[in-house]
DNA sequence: CTAGGGTTAG
């Protein structure tokens, strides 16, 4: 090759037609050879080429070049910030911004959207709020791109309150602003707000596009509002003559009809999608899930097997389809198959598997999954769902210590009401009422609001630990302090709590004064308390009431007959048994699982077929004898 | 602004 010396100009024009990283590296080498690598007109396009070539090593290379520039200009700063915002290390974007603030350069409207995106990718609302302050300080709140990035930031974190505030206070709004907030409302579970916003959008004559309709339909799916869904369908049909080529929209339509239970309509839209050659995996997944929810697991499985393409989402849907119908073993089997096929399960799939383990009590399997996926690059441990699923799994499998360990190691910004609910109910089931209350008090200092589930867990914890006064105080505080009106479940917990503690009259009184008609759960709780404390008169009342709300339920008869036998009312017990025979009621046998050394053992009431059934029974007898000896009262 | 699949109680 001839020793050709290229001028600055020709190198620069070469760079514009450069395609591969290798070519750009060659040009860079030339600039060094020619001693012109400090020419800003050459180095700037080189840096941005490397920055935007979507390769971690090239980005590293551009960072090196960038660091050698003494006073980078705004353009270069923005280029580097943008490149880092979608890199594997978005925090570099914020460091760059910091050094920019220390330099004579000021940010502009191009800087903030990428900073905000970095905060989103760092899962840090806190940093995002700081950047928001800088937006205000620098006067960019009226730039529509900045506004849309702010909207996205708040929506991603489910903070629709702040998102609405940004939206309301912004002098500029475009289609993207509306779409972002509409979608944010839907994802936060406020689908009705999204419908209202859509109305406003139309009044302001902002023309919706495909994304608007997809978001709205997704809202109709979650509301199971097929009426609105149909209207959106019509509107989308009229507005978009290109409806036929939008796969996303077709999928959203199918999902809406499937979730609303209009399976025939869902399949009709799906078929039209197939005819026009669209990508239909998502639509099939929706239809499949609908069948699973209806309890038709076999139909769901057939669809799953017949789908010509399956992705992680379809696998997850099938795994959950099994879980929904109580087929936890099949769910886990499918998860293992997914792993064996070399497909990388994502957080949602892992969460689904952990949940199946929790339901089965499959500790070894569950902890294997937990350890395998904690600390992966897509960061399960940054995902609130993964953490609560793991906490729940350990708690349900009897390892409250492991559950607490995970909980305590979780940093505060990842602690949510949901996670507290998981750990508190875990503590409740382990009879650790005091700890449950301690953690509950912690929520306040983190600014987390308890919800109705928190109180179910708390009251349950008090009930299992005999903390009657604490339970009463908490029940009081629900409405007076937290503005949550107690539901049937909460009254149920209170009846159980008072009943176990022997305050039978107080429990009965609560039932009579509560604002709803007591359901079977409540009467059963009272009946069970009567059994423990041997109150026959109240037991008769409770069982009479139970009969009126729950006609012909086998468990009631069995419980009643056992109870009467226990308190030496053998004649009455016999008459109840007779009633069972007369009505022909059969209580479905109780069953349970236990997992040891990776094998699952199923136990059913009255079933002695397990090879170690005799030994197990002896062990159980021993356990209950020891429980009795330390004063524990075993209820029905 | 890019569907479809998820975690807590009873």
From TrEMBL:
PPR repeat spans = 73-107, 174-208, 280-310, 311-345, 416-450, 451-486
Task: Report the GO molecular function annotations.
Answer: RNA binding
**UniProt entry keywords in alphabetical sequence:** Repeat
Family matches, as InterPro entries: E_motif, PPR_At4g14850-like_plant, PPR_rpt, TPR-like_helical_dom_sf
Give the PROSITE patterns listed for this entry.
Answer: PPR
Gene3D superfamilies on file: Tetratricopeptide repeat domain (1.25.40.10)
Q: Name one GO cellular component term.
A: cytoplasm
Query: Alphabetically, which GO biological process terms does the record hold?
Result: mRNA modification
Against NCBIfam families, the record matches this protein to: PPR
Q: Which family does it belong to?
A: Belongs to the PPR family. PCMP-E subfamily.
> Could you tell me which PANTHER family the record lists for this protein?
PENTATRICOPEPTIDE REPEAT-CONTAINING PROTEIN
Q: What is the name of the protein in this document?
A: Pentatricopeptide repeat-containing protein
């Amino acid at each position: 090759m001839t020793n050709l010396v290229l001028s600055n100009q020709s190198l620069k024009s070469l760079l514009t037609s450069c395609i591969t990283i290798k070519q750009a590296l060659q040009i860079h080498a030339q600039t060094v050879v020619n001693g012109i690598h400090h020419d800003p007109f050459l180095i700037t396009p080189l840096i941005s080429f490397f920055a935007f070539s979507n390769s971690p090593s090239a980005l590293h290379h551009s960072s090196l070049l960038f660091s050698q520039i003494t006073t980078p200009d705004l353009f270069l700063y923005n280029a580097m910030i943008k490149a880092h915002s979608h890199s594997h290390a978005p925090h570099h974007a914020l460091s760059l911004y910091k050094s920019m603030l220390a330099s004579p350069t000021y940010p502009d409207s191009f800087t903030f959207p990428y900073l905000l995106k970095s905060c989103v990718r760092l899962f840090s609302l806190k940093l995002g709020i700081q950047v928001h302050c800088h937006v205000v300080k620098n006067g960019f709140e009226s730039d529509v791109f900045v506004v849309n990035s702010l909207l996205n930031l708040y929506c991603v974190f489910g903070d629709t309150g702040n998102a609405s505030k940004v939206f309301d206070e912004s002098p500029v709004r475009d289609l993207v602003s509306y779409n972002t907030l509409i979608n944010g409302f839907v994802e936060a579970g406020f689908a009705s707000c999204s419908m209202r916003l859509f109305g406003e959008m139309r009044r302001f004559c902002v023309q919706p596009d495909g994304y608007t309709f997809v978001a709205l339909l997704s809202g109709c799916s979650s509301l199971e509002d097929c009426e609105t869904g149909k209207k959106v369908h019509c509107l989308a049909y009229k507005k978009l003559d290109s409806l036929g080529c939008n796969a996303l929209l077709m999928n959203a339509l199918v999902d809406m009809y499937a979730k609303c239970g209009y399976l025939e309509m869902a399949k009709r839209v799906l078929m039209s999608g197939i005819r026009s050659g669209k990508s239909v995996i998502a639509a099939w997944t929706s239809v499949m899930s609908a069948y699973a929810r209806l309890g038709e697991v076999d139909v769901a499985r057939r669809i799953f097997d017949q789908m010509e393409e399956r992705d992680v989402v379809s696998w997850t849907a099938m795994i959950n389809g099994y879980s929904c119908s109580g087929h936890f073993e099949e769910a886990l089997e499918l998860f293992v198959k997914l792993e064996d096929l070399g497909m990388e399960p994502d957080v949602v799939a892992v969460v689904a598997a952990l949940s199946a383990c929790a339901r089965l009590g499959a500790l070894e399997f569950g902890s294997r999954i937990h350890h395998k996926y904690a600390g992966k690059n897509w960061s399960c441990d940054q995902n609130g769902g993964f953490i609560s699923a793991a906490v729940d799994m350990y708690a349900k499998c009897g390892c409250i210590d492991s559950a607490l360990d995970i909980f305590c190691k979780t940093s505060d910004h990842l602690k949510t009401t949901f996670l507290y609910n998981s750990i508190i109910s875990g503590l409740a089931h382990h009879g650790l009422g005091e700890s449950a209350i301690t953690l509950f008090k912690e929520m306040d200092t983190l600014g987390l609001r308890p919800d109705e589930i928190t109180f179910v867990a708390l009251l349950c914890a008090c009930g299992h630990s005999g903390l009657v006064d604490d339970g009463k105080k908490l029940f009081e505080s629900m409405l007076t302090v937290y503005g949550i009106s107690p539901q049937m479940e909460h009254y149920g917990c209170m009846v159980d709590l008072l009943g176990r503690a022997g305050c039978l009259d107080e429990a009965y009184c609560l039932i009579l004064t509560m604002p709803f008609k007591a359901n079977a759960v409540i009467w059963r709780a009272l009946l069970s308390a009567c059994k423990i404390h041997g109150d026959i008169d109240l037991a008769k009342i409770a069982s009479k009431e139970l009969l009126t709300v729950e006609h012909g339920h086998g468990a009631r008869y069995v419980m009643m007959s056992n109870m009467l036998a226990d308190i030496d009312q053998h004649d009455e017990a016999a008459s109840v048994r007779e009633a069972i025979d007369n009505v022909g009621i059969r209580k479905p046998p109780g069953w349970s699982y236990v997992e040891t050394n990776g094998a699952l053992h199923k136990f059913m009431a009255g079933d002695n077929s397990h090879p170690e059934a005799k030994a197990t029974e002896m062990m159980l007898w021993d356990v209950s004898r020891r429980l009795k000896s330390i004063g524990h009262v075993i209820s029905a």
